[in-house]
């Protein structure tokens, strides 16, 4: 028995952002680089300088609206799917580059949040240099995994890090080919495609969602490896400065990439927690409000990121994934309070199963949004076969 097509039900829970008119944004060109991108990067750097140099807060607050306006203008007006340079003589259109629009909007949104945090933070918690402040996303409070690379030798550290990047690129291509062995057109069509087709997630869709999340993880990992190698080899950072979930709490609190955690907590979680306590809420209630606000902010950022690709965005599919995980963490907290915490192999397997079934069930709708909005993964090392649509 087919359960039901879900569109009519999900529309009651959904907020949809419309597609972006192709002519509403400016193609990548010398003009947009000089007048949009570089001024935004300059404003971000100035905000970081103000934090490190302990510039009077009044000046920081006065500069903040100008900086936010520049970042907003860049995020919504630049289009990486179109390129125009005089040498070309025409505008080149590459719809696969829509993911760069997503990265630009998410990156500048995070930069805007960090600029707000820098404006109102004390200098005592700042990094030792402007470069460190700009390049340290995860913050000092985020748990760091045990270092496995040789930190005694800069040359060996860089070599091993680059080898790790190459290995993760190879794994990326292997997962990519594995996905296409199951679903040949998935993540290939820049016009969009079909994944769930309005139906409930199935074991196959959940498995493919897990593979898509693996591609995301591998992308973050090889990017991190390359940036780490550059930081140690070219910027003279010391190797010592670089750094299997059984619950949703552990997954989001320690295991996932943590790049945005410090930003979300400083600009949203901590202020909401403090405000809730001042309003007379208990510590548990304030913690709950802080948790919901952080996941809500993450949901909005990723939702807007999908919208930036140009084909519209569904709140349920993207934002709903993050809010569902917030609900899952609350359920875990209630469960722990009722039955306590348990150890042992059986509980480990049960916790691992619960975590990934929940992630992949709700994640299937987010991957469905990726497919429908034409998110394209290209291979890195092995040539992609020509596909005609």
How would you describe what is shown here?
This protein is mostly helical and 389 residues long. 62% of the residues lie in helices and 4% in strands. It is built from twelve helices and five strands. It has helices spanning 7-10, 30-52, 57-77, 98-120, 130-135, 154-182, 203-233, 248-255, 261-278, 283-308, 315-339, 345-372, and strands at 16-17, 26-28, 78-83, 92-93, 313-314. The strands form two sheets. A three-stranded mixed beta sheet has the order 2-3-4. A two-stranded antiparallel sheet has the order 1-5. α9 (261-278) crosses α10. The radius of gyration is 22 Å and the shape is globular. The chain starts with 6 loop residues before the first helix and ends in a 17-residue tail after the last helix. Residues 241-246 have low confidence and may be disordered.
Summary, kept brief:
The protein is mostly helical.
Structural class per helix/strand content? mainly alpha
Rounded mean pLDDT is 82
Radius of gyration from the CA trace? 22 Å
Query: Helical stretch count?
Result: 12
Span between N and C termini?
A: 33 Å
Helical content (DSSP H or I, runs of 4+)? 55-70%
Shape: globular
Strand order of the largest sheet: 2-3-4
Which stretches are low in confidence, meaning pLDDT under 50 for 5 or more residues running?
241-246
H/E element string?
Answer: HEEHHEEHHHHHHHEHH
Largest sheet: 3 strands, mixed
Strand content: under 5%
| Overall number of strands | 5
């Amino acid at each position: 028995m087919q359960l039901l097509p879900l569109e009519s039900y999900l529309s009651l829970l959904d907020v949809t952002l419309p597609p972006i008119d192709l002519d509403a944004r400016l193609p990548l060109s010398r003009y947009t680089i000089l007048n949009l991108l570089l001024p935004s990067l300059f404003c971000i750097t100035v905000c970081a300088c103000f934090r490190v140099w302990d510039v009077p807060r009044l000046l920081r607050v006065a500069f903040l609206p100008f900086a936010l306006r520049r970042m907003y203008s860049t995020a919504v007006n630049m289009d990486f799917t179109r390129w125009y340079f005089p040498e070309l003589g025409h505008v080149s259109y590459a719809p696969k580059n829509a993911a760069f629009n997503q990265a630009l909007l998410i990156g500048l949104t995070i930069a805007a949040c960090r600029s707000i945090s820098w404006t109102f933070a004390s200098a005592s918690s700042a990094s030792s240099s402007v470069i460190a402040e700009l390049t340290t996303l995860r913050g000092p409070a985020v748990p760091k995994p045990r270092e496995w690379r040789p930190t005694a030798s800069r040359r060996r550290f860089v070599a091993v890090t680059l080898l790790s990047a190459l290995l993760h690129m190879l794994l990326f291509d292997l997962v990519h080919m594995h996905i296409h062995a199951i679903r040949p057109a998935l993540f290939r069509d820049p016009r969009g495609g079909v994944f769930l087709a309005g139906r409930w997630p199935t074991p196959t869709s959940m498995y493919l969602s897990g593979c898509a999340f693996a591609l995301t993880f591998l992308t973050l990992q090889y990017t991190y490896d390359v940036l780490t190698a550059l930081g140690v080899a070219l910027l003279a950072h010391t190797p010592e400065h670089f750094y299997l979930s059984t619950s949703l709490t552990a997954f989001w609190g320690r295991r996932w990439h943590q790049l945005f955690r410090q930003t979300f907590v400083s600009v949203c979680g901590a202020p909401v927690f403090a405000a809730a306590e001042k309003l007379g809420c208990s510590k548990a209630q304030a913690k709950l409000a802080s948790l919901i606000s952080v996941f809500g902010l993450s949901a909005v950022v990723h939702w807007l990121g999908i919208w930036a690709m140009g084909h519209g965005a569904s709140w349920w599919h993207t934002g709903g994934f993050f809010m569902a995980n917030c609900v899952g963490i609350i359920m875990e907290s209630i469960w722990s309070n009722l039955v306590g915490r348990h150890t042992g192999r059986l509980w480990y397997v049960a916790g691992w199963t619960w975590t990934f079934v929940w992630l992949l069930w709700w994640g299937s709708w987010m991957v469905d949004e990726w497919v429908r909005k034409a998110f394209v993964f290209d291979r890195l090392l092995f040539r992609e076969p020509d596909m005609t649509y």
